[in-house]
Amino acid sequence: MPAYAHRSRAALLALTTPLVAAARELFTDPTVLEAAAAADEAAVALDLEVGGRRGATARLSAEASAVLEAEQSLDRRVAGLHRALDGLAALGIGAAEDLTEALFPAGLAAVVRPGGRSQVPEYQRLADAIHGALDTPGAAHFGPALAELRDDLRAWCAATLAKDATHRAGSTRAAGAAAAAEALKSALIRLDRTVELAAGGPRSALYERWALVVRGIA
What we know:
Layout: H1 9-26, H2 30-90, H3 94-103, H4 109-112, H5 120-133, H6 145-199, H7 205-211
């Protein structure tokens, strides 16, 4: 009997095609043909699961890169806003002090020090604070730049949460791929046993001819 228990997913898929083809070529027994069809279907299911995981991994990598790049840009812009407000306050513009208190009640570090998902609540709070302050005198010094920053902060938060959702989906697909691999192993073992019975035992010439098609496959 070919070994199935410790095969990689790629090896299981490589084994299935020749074993199924040989079973269909060498046997007319309905039990063998049914087992061959079941193994074929299990291989298709595994192939779809593995392909889905690869796609999820690629999407996660692209999303993570985009989110990190946007986060670094937003950190610079938020820090620039804080410096600008400090400068206006130093000139004696009281509205700038009020706006600083509204946007940065715990200081700049509380907003930009966190990273990734942990920064989402801070950036959501800052975006909401900017929205509420757009009509105040202090905000008038910054024109549409504040509204643009608000929108970009909200977009980044949404993208970060979407990235996390993709990561969770990737974990689910990984579990699905593992289950599909186990299902294929079971289907191949079933095929092996039905071929053995139909051929007259594991030492029969017909069984050996069937098993020979996968000799050398890792």
